[in-house]
Amino acid sequence: MRVRKRLGQLRVRASRRQVEGLLEWAGHWPRRTWAIEGARGLGQLLSQQLIAAGERVLDVPPKLAAGAVAEYRSDQQERR
User: Which DSSP state fits 36?
Assistant: First the structure.
């Protein structure tokens, strides 16, 4: 799978109800894939909740996520 562009980004607090809010937020993207940092570690609760809701989830290694965050911040500063 090739990522074409980031459509959105949202940070949430871990809870039993986090998926409800996420699915509502992402409702206007019917074909979506969730990229979760540490889906087998700290992001496991969220990943399992999304999978149980029928969503597609990809595990993003923390080092890769750190690079993506740095790139995103750089892009944001260039736009200012």
Answer: E
48-79: pLDDT as tens digits: 999 999 999 988 887 765 555 555 555 555 65
Encode pLDDT of 13-27 as tens digits: 777 788 988 999 899
Helices (H) and strands (E) in the chain — how many of each? 3, 2
The residue whose two tokens read 């109800």 is 17
Strand ranges (E), 18-80: 33-37, 56-60
pTM attached to this predicted model:
0.66
b (16+ CB within 10 A) / e for 17-34:
eebeebeeebeeeeeeeb
For 40, the token pair is 């087998």
